[in-house]
Amino acid sequence: MEIIAAEDINIGTDLFPPLSPLAFSLYESFLSSHCSSCFSLLPPSPPRPPQSPTSLYCSAACSSSLTDSPIISPPDLSPILSSDIRTALRLLNSTVVTSSLPHRLNGLLTNHHRLMTDTSFSVSIKNAANFIAAVLKSNRENTELEEAAICSVLTNAVEVQDSNGRALGIALYDSRFSWINHSCSPNSCYRFSNTTSYQNDTTKTIPHITNPETTSYNLEEFKTFCCFQGPKVIARSIKKIKKGEEITVSYIDLLQPTGLRQSDLWSKYRFMCSCRRCAASPPAYVDSILEGVLTSVGHYHGNINKDEAMGEMTDHIQEAIDNFLSDDINPKSCCEKIENVLYHGIQIKADSQPNHHLWLHPIHHAALNGYITLATAYRIRSIDSETDMGKAFDMRRISAACSFFLACASHHLFSAEPSLAMSAAKFWTNAGESLLDFSRKFSSGRSDVKCNKCHMLETPNSLRGFNENSKKILSCVTDISQVVWSFLTRGCPCLQKFMSPFDFSFTKANGERDETSEDQTLSVLLLSFHCLLYADLLTDLCYGQNSHLLSGLHV
Q1: In this structure, is residue 322 part of a structural domain?
Q2: H or E element: which one contains 479?
Q3: What is the mean pLDDT of residues 277-302?
Q4: What are the phi and psi torsion angles at 349 (to 5°)?
Q5: Based on the domain organization, do 364 and 453 belong to the same domain?
Q6: In terms of residue numbers, what domain contains 55?
Q7: Which of 88, 199, 262, 380 is most solvent-facing, going by the fewest CB within 10 Å?
Q8: Does 548 fall in a domain?
Q9: Percent of the chain with pLDDT over 90
Q10: If residue 348 lies in a helix (H) or strand (E), which one and from where to where?
Q11: How many other C-beta atoms can be found within 10 angstroms of the C-beta atom of residue 480?
Q12: Which among 13-17, 51-55, 185-189, 342-346 has the top mean pLDDT?
């Protein structure tokens, strides 16, 4: 089962009009703060009792189509979440079921056999099916239908995220979307929308069965059995696609090396990916970087010691991140532990070679996670230090430096693998917002800075042609970063050691850097504008020009 292009498709093209979900549900923690239909944020209201019996909606239109207004609180059936069960209930409650049970439900593969042979799922699936049957007051002899529904949700549902990347809940769509297969180098991405109007109703894709002799296919299964509410989904091309070429998206985080991606896909979806990126030998460039190290002797062949050293550094960073995410948060300790690994690396011994150091490559997947955590931890430290303006200034400045470094690192990866555009868009948005927040908070309040090189700050609506405009903006970013990089990174040795955020060569010395000046904070402000402009280009490429207007929902 796959979806293919019905025609040649240019980059940045919506593949079909917005699709309504078959079923959906908010996660438990958002039931009192978001609309249970469209997932939009509700206006502030008095707190509800913990076990309030009704769903909340933003409008009469959102509440009118749902037949399961009472919130069902199922028992703990880990690893199956209450949102999975509510979605399965809605699927059975509000759709016309067409199936060849238990393997197929409404044209969707359920993975019933594979999931039921997995002891970590089978017991929970049976218990969930019994609970659903009891709620629906089913009098059938067995619970195959309920099992198929919960398996269909586990296999096909996707997380709906807001503009800050928070996962609000899940949604299940019909075959036109769910038949789109995964690739670690996809040619498309998808976004969510609450829009009720859409200019182009043309569908540029068609379903395709790769082996019709072994796979039954009924066109009736492609009829839309949806509830016409909930977050709608739209797929969009991020590469040029030829007629007859398969449409692919990513089911997982692509900023992981091959081994972690394969493990993630198997644990969630029960398949091993064989896309060109995963099958590449030697590994694709982005994967070699995501697992790369820097060494003090150029080339080193002690693979066992090197692997052990890399594992030790990765474990130290992950331990610091886990501690930071725990209830007992200590941002300062977290920063010190992560910076120690990123800056000092680790010394390893070899029988036939002198002792030397290894460092994680700055775009190693663990290093990226470390810098992401540093950006957040330093921001928290700046808030905690607001009574000391000098300290708050330094903390917010280093947080902005980490965010900007991540944006530049994501550009390096995106240049080698265009399917990482979605990740790059997020990092450049975060960088622009962090730099803007810092410069406005600590500058004299001026905002009349201009760019005499690209002039795009004067005409932001003229951004047409991704390649041409991205070159102009990035050229400005490179020039400005040469002025402000040493200022931004002062006091952060793990970033200070790099010549620039675009050049991962080590500096020859790490002495005192430039003093703070008004010119530098204004340059940071100018840099923030360019970062946000580049983020807009990437966002337009992935999600469409007006995606920021679509209730803040995206993936």
Answers
A1: yes
A2: helix 466-489
A3: 78
A4: -110, 145
A5: no
A6: 23-156
A7: 199
A8: yes
A9: 41
A10: strand 346-350
A11: 21
A12: 185-189
